[in-house]
Amino acid sequence: MKQTILIFALSRSPWIGGIYYRKNIIHMLLENEDITKKYEIALLVNERYAEIFEVFLPEIKLIRCKDDIGVAGAILRSIICCMKYKVRYVFPLRPFGFLRMFGITPVSWIADLQHCHYPDFFDQEEIDKRNADFRQIARADAPLVLSSNDALKDFRTYFSSDRKNVFVVHFTSYIEDELKGLEKLDEDALLDRSGLKKGRYVAICNQFWKHKDHLVVLKAIKQLVQEEAISGMSFVFTGELSDRRDPAYIEQVRAMLDEPMIADAVKVLGFIDRTTQLCIMKNASFLIQPSLFEGWGTVVEDGKILNKRMILSDIDVHLEQKDDHCMLFKKNNPEALADAIKEMLSSRTDESLCEHIDMTRRYASVLSQIFI
After folding, report:
1. Which DSSP category does 161 fall into?
2. What is the Cα–Cα distance from 314 to 43, expressed in whole angstroms?
3. For site-directed labelling of 57, which of 39, 106, 212, 248 has its Cα 20 to 30 A away?
4. Separation between Cα atoms, residue 108 and residue 140, nearest integer Å
């Protein structure tokens, strides 16, 4: 019987990005022949997210848990799974030392170290918790996964300059099942229900959190409307208009959205399902990712899979992540973004001619050094 890598996806967090991260990692594990020869892949997941992973059946074991499972219940269920499926690694998980006594290695993951750069975006309790968790990880010797070299630089700067067993594992978006779902839909009708026409809008697909910097986009739109530079083009935002960390920021965003000058040029669709979001991204003229900070942006990876042109803020991780179809602008600079939008609008290309290079297997090769 093969040993098992258990992917831990029990979460009470509202951050759906962490769930899709696990989906991407499972795809990479299955693409790595060294891994699949030695290990089975199992997933421990809340019932509400289980459907996202059904695309991998029967290649993985899918273990569903109640959505309201508490910490004690999650620990107990994890122990049962480890015993039942001969688990060798659990990922991602904090470095609980007692697991090593049973021959189980916890593999940790740090998505980003945003709080070190923008502490004002967090309350003190969350900063203290993140620091405590990351210090624990820094002291451990079990494998640690980071999603970018930019995150590695931050980890070395703020937590440990010499911690061993640290790996940078870039990920790509695995959206094949959603794209197959799109093939069964009338995309024009779906767009029409949202009041959109193919190629006649720009898409910004992020949650309305402060570090995503929607305000820079709205200010750039205002400038472009004043210059009469975007006739017939609209800007479409997806994501729920809320930020639990900073409700005042949402009020600023709402105030700008309501300004008569730009009201006709913007559309907020709110929280939408994944297939609808990808349809909107696919049929946009181009995408904008204006973030002040990212770990390794899923939206950018989605855009690369879809062969989309993108305008990205010039943060370090975007420099690391971009491809040849991306244009950079100076972060938090609406004038620079307005100029980039005008340039992108004036240089339309046939995206069907763009070549997508699938980096999944190359990125997945690093996993052989972790799950040995």
Report:
1. S
2. 36
3. 106
4. 10
**Cα–Cα distance for residue pair 246/35, rounded to 1 Å:** 42
Residue 157 CB neighbour total at 10 angstroms: 11
What is the β-pairing status of strands 3-9 and 39-46? Answer: parallel
Contacts of residue 122, defined as CB under 8 A and 6 or more positions apart, other chains included, come to: 114, 115, 130, 245
CA 50 to chain CA mean position, Å: 18
What distance in Å separates the CA atoms of residue 307 and residue 300, rounded to the nearest whole number?
10
Contact 366, 171 (CB under 8 A): no
Beta bridge partners of residue 3, listed in sequence order: 39
- CA nearest to 7, candidates 49, 67, 66, 37: 49
Give yes or no for a contact between 307 and 356, defined as CB atoms under 8 angstroms apart: yes
Are 242 and 210 in contact by the 8 Å Cβ rule? The answer is no
Is 65 in contact with 46 (CB distance < 8 Å)? yes
State how far Cα 68 lies from the chain centre: 24
Residues 72-108 pLDDT 10s: 888 888 888 999 999 999 999 988 888 888 899 999 9
pLDDT tens for 160-213 read: 999 999 999 999 999 988 988 888 889 999 999 989 999 999 999 999 999 999
Which 8-state DSSP code applies to residue 255? H
Which residue(s) pair with 202 in the sheet?
Answer: 235, 286
Does this model's pTM top 0.90? My answer is yes
The pair of structure tokens assigned to 103 is: 């021959």
Closest CA to 301 of 25, 39, 100: 25
Q: Please report, as a single letter, which amino acid is at residue 268.
A: V
